Amino acid sequence: MDSELSPSESPSARARQNRKRKTLRLIGWIFLPIGFIGLSIFAAKLGIAMGRADLPESAKVSTAYPVGIVVVAGRDGDPVFFAETVQELRNFYFQYPEIEQRREANLDGETKIRRVFGRVELATLKSDADGVQVQIRTGPLADEVYWIHKSQLPAQN
Q1: Domain total for the chain?
Q2: What does DSSP assign to residue 75?
Q3: Strands, DSSP E only, in the chain?
Q4: What are the pLDDT tens digits along the chain (157 aa)?
Q5: What is the residue range of 50's domain?
Q6: Same domain? 30 vs 98
Q7: Which SS3 state, helix, strand or coil, does residue 81 take?
Q8: Where does a domain end: 18, 40, 59?
């Protein structure tokens, strides 16, 4: 009797069980990474949504400066600073954080910052986080395209 195998222990039954196990393992190895990536994306989106919900109202409002309008800078007598790239403008404002420091900065030599005194009419072309690309319409740099810091432009509602 020992030599007889029960139907559940027959070689064909064991082979079927092994195939089922291998198939389930294969399915697991396929869906495990997909599930992990899916859950990671879901967690990231949830974190972004929760982070936005915690922002103050002032940060939720878009700070992009309007594009395609004409504005006048330099009304209060302070110099207006222009840069060829937005990164040069950021570097300049980082190096000279105070208005007085910027006014007295030595712009000769390696800097590509242009300083203009007086009123300048500008047409806005593109907006960035802290700078606006403008085409200068009046003054010594007329018809040139430069970047200007948002703090030098009139406030927009």
Answers
A1: 2
A2: T
A3: 70-73, 80-83, 113-116, 120-127, 131-136, 145-149
A4: 445 555 557 888 888 888 888 898 988 899 889 999 999 999 999 998 888 777 766 555 666 788 889 999 887 778 899 999 999 999 999 998 888 888 888 887 767 888 888 889 999 999 888 899 999 999 888 899 999 999 888 887 6
A5: 7-59
A6: no
A7: strand
A8: 59
